Amino acid sequence: MNLPIQVTQEELSEILIITDGYIENDLRVKRDHAFLLPKGNGLPFRPKGKVFLI
Asked: Which H or E element spans position 17?
């Protein structure tokens, strides 16, 4: 018997975090996300995923 799986829109949505880079060293985001930073700034930790430069 297959039961329907209910997933909320919040669980499907990705998050775009716009920051200047001065954030917590141990920031944890549980959903898919991306950081948008000004040119020349960086994150205070090593990214685990891909990094894209525009």
From this structure: strand 15-18
pLDDT digits (tens, 9 = 90+) for 1-54: 566 777 676 667 889 999 999 988 888 888 889 999 999 999 998 888 888 887
| Nearest by Cα to 20 from 1, 40, 3, 45 | 40
* Domain spans of the chain, in order of start: 1-47
Q: What's the CA gap between 49 and 17, in Å, rounded?
A: 15
Which residue in the block uniquely carries the two structure tokens 């549980």? 30
Distance, CA of 5 to CA of 46 (rounded, Å):
35
